[in-house]
């Protein structure tokens, strides 16, 4: 696993945020991420489809 952004960073569409990895109790390489708006999770699908959303501030929980 490798992270390219940190908590509080603003990210834009197309920006690489992390590399796949296999840490903790996972059974294979994957990337877990969340999009939070005002500290509440939102459906990330909207950020892949609609171009009118603002940049997203990153909030990550790094597990080892």
UniProtKB/TrEMBL annotation:
CDD domains attached to this UniProt entry: M23_peptidase (cd12797)
Domain M23ase beta-sheet core, residue spans: 2-44
Pfam families recorded: Peptidase_M23 (PF01551)
InterPro entries: Cell_wall_metabolism_enzyme, Dup_hybrid_motif, M23ase_b-sheet_dom
SUPFAM superfamilies: Duplicated hybrid motif
GO molecular function: metalloendopeptidase activity
Name under which the protein is recorded: M23 family metallopeptidase
Species this chain originates from: Leptospirillum ferriphilum
Organism phylogeny: Bacteria, Pseudomonadati, Nitrospirota, Nitrospiria, Nitrospirales
């Amino acid at each position: 696993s490798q992270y390219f952004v940190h908590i509080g960073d603003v990210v834009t569409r197309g920006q690489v945020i992390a590399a796949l990895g296999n840490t903790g109790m996972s059974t294979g390489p994957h990337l877990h991420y969340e999009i939070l708006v005002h500290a509440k999770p939102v459906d990330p699908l909207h950020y892949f489809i609609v171009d009118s959303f603002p940049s997203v501030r990153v909030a990550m929980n790094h597990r080892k």
